[in-house]
Amino acid sequence: MANTINTTFNALAPTAAPTTGGSWFEAMASAWGKALDSQAADIEAKSAGLSQGMDKPADITELTAMSLKMTFLSNSSHTAISSVGSALETMARKQ
């Protein structure tokens, strides 16, 4: 699981550069959104397999792990965006 988390964070790097003239903060939020969308799609695909008879305990355990990864990514994105937003707010007040 740690390896897939590293892969997700590595996937954030190329998408972090603003391509539409937006700020790096917007690019970071967009990259987090793409990572969350990707994980949600993986969960959807796995859960669709469960309804097609792939309901062994190993499959259910994998789906549970994928859901926990989604929770981790969601909490991490919230923390990152909130922390950076708060830091930017503090910097703006001091200028």
Description:
The protein has 95 residues and is an all-alpha fold. The protein has one domain. The protein has three helices and no strands. It has helices spanning 2-15, 24-51, 57-94. The protein starts with a helix and ends with a helix. 4% of the residues are buried.
Compact description:
The chain has 95 residues and is mainly alpha-helical. The chain contains 3 helices and no strands.
Which sheet architecture does the biggest sheet show? none
How many discrete domains?
Answer: 1
- The oligomeric state is single chain
What's the helical proportion of residues? over 70%
Shape: elongated
Elements, N to C (H/E):
HHH
Give the end-to-end Cα distance, rounded to a whole number of Å. Answer: 43 Å
- DSSP, total strands: 0
Helix tally equals 3
Proportion of strand residues: under 5%
**CA radius of gyration:** 17 Å
Uncertain segments? none
Q: Strand pairing plus helix content: what structural class?
A: mainly alpha
- The residue-averaged pLDDT reads 84
Strand and helix map with partners:
Layout (H helix, E strand, L loop, with lengths): L1 H14 L8 H28 L5 H38 L1
Question: Which key features would you list for this structure?
Answer:
95 residues, mainly alpha, 84% helix, elongated
